[in-house]
């Protein structure tokens, strides 16, 4: 097997791209797959459905490998938010005292909004696990939140700001010991950190494919539902979740597909799935453990260089590799202006309110030399103060 630095497989934009934790760069294979599907549409029109009908299901082996699940436990569909609603509609069954939902104070807002919607319907609370330092979660606080009146907990595998990686098997075990269902938002780990969701016994998980999986802006998301829950049938039904063999009989009696495919709702976006199809082919050619090893090497290098040359920037990502995802978060009061100034120099980081500069050296396409150059550019900005001229300028992402 070749190494995991595969810049040849990507259409890299000019400059240095360190924002793969927000939107991964385009694999050539994604473009080729979209063009292939476009040609099918042009040539076959509605006849193209013969090839497209099972496209989402055909991607499940590749996706299952990324999250450590059987193919029938995962499906590419929807968005994180929509999939979360769909899984909550299925699994969240408040009963008596055991009715509350747990999330974290550091969650991406959409996850909390989804939980709030369901809590409101059932007169329950969404309890947020607090953070002691504003960046990370402490295992004792997670344990303390998992009380006997909690029905379901949703946690991020990797926190979107700080990059802290939580102990997925450990927290899952603890929640189950206490009779709590547990789901994971794996948006910031899939494609960067290998998972074993099936063996960990996680009840469900959701993620997107537009970050480290490189399937393009707004790519269809993904979900995992452990096979022990497949008998429940989807809480939200749609015709695309019907058993494929009889879907076109158009009966009003809903017969769900056997596995996670039952959680599809409407007609899938074939062109967007094609980009995912191409993007997944990249992962078919690499070893996930090697991706993780190289990612940890790059983030270690970055943190060491920041410590040595940029003492004004505070690393808020855990140093322990077992608690670190694929990106490094640096706190600085001028993080926003620094982010803009780096972009103006062709280096793409991102900024998260209020003071976090995120840098994601991606194992598949970033190099040690790019990290060195980025640290040099930051040193120069801090020395000259050139970034301050950009303080008031706009920034969308
Ligand atoms: C951790 C996390 N959760 C949820 C979302 C929302 O995802 P979607 O827009 O696919 O619903 C994002 C988006 O970036 C995210 O980073």
Q: Indicate the CATH architecture of the largest domain.
A: 3-Layer(aba) Sandwich
Task: Give the helix proportion (percent range).
Answer: 25-40%
Strand content: 5-15%
Low-confidence stretches: none
Class computed from helices, strands and strand pairing:
alpha/beta
Shape: globular
Strand runs, count? 15
CATH topology of the largest domain: Aspartate Aminotransferase, domain 2
**Which hetero compounds are present in the coordinates?**
pyridoxal-5'-phosphate
Integer count of domains:
2
Strand numbers in spatial order across the main sheet = 4-10-9-8-7-5-6
- Biggest sheet layout: 7 strands, mixed
Q: Specify the CATH class of the largest domain.
A: Alpha Beta
Q: Report, as a whole number of angstroms, the end-to-end distance.
A: 36 Å
Name the CATH superfamily classification of the largest domain: Type I PLP-dependent aspartate aminotransferase-like (Major domain)
Short descriptors:
single chain; 397 residues; alpha/beta; Aspartate Aminotransferase, domain 1; Aspartate Aminotransferase, domain 2; seven-stranded mixed β-sheet; four-stranded antiparallel β-sheet; globular; binds pyridoxal-5'-phosphate
Question: How are the SSEs placed, and which strands pair?
Answer:
Blueprint: E1 10-11, E2 16-17, E3 26-27, H1 28-44, H2 49-52, H3 55-58, H4 60-67, E4 74-76, H5 80-91, E5 100-104, H6 109-122, E6 126-129, H7 139-145, E7 150-156, H8 168-177, E8 181-185, H9 197-200, E9 204-207, E10 222-225, H10 270-284, H11 288-309, E11 314-315, E12 328-331, H12 335-344, E13 347-348, E14 350-352, E15 356-359, H13 368-384
Parallel strand pairs: 2-13, 5-6, 5-7, 7-8, 8-9
Antiparallel strand pairs: 1-3, 4-10, 9-10, 11-12, 12-15, 14-15
Helix pairs in contact: 1-10, 5-6, 11-13
The chain binds pyridoxal-5'-phosphate.
